[in-house]
Design goal:
- This protein is an all-alpha fold and 86 residues long.
- The chain is built from four helices and no strands.
- The chain is 62% helix and 0% strand.
- Helix 2 runs antiparallel to helix 3.
- The longest helix has 21 residues.
- The radius of gyration is 13 Å and the shape is globular.
- The two termini are 25 Å apart.
């Protein structure tokens, strides 16, 4: 499985179509992938497992989200005021 994830990461160009978010506005898709990345990292770290499988979510949210949003969310997570459940 790790090989297939690594192959997907190597061939990654931009965020693929996600049927959960069929509309042009990809704001929700951006938000969900940001949350999924940090949830994945937290879960894998708790298990003591490798977190490279979480990099897919990071690549998707960095492709979709404006940098200013990501920076603001990172600051809020560091301050403990982030509104999402991670």
């Amino acid at each position: 499985m790790a090989d297939s994830i690594q192959a997907k990461l190597d061939n990654y160009k931009t965020a693929p179509f996600d049927s959960r978010f069929p509309n042009q506005n990809q704001t929700r898709n951006c938000w969900q992938n940001y949350l999924d990345f940090h949830r994945c990292e937290k879960a894998m770290a708790a298990k003591g497992a490798d977190t490279t499988c979480c990099q897919w979510y990071r690549r998707v949210y960095t492709s979709l989200c404006p940098i200013s949003w990501v920076n603001a969310w990172d600051e809020r997570r560091a301050e403990g005021t982030f509104p999402g459940k991670i």
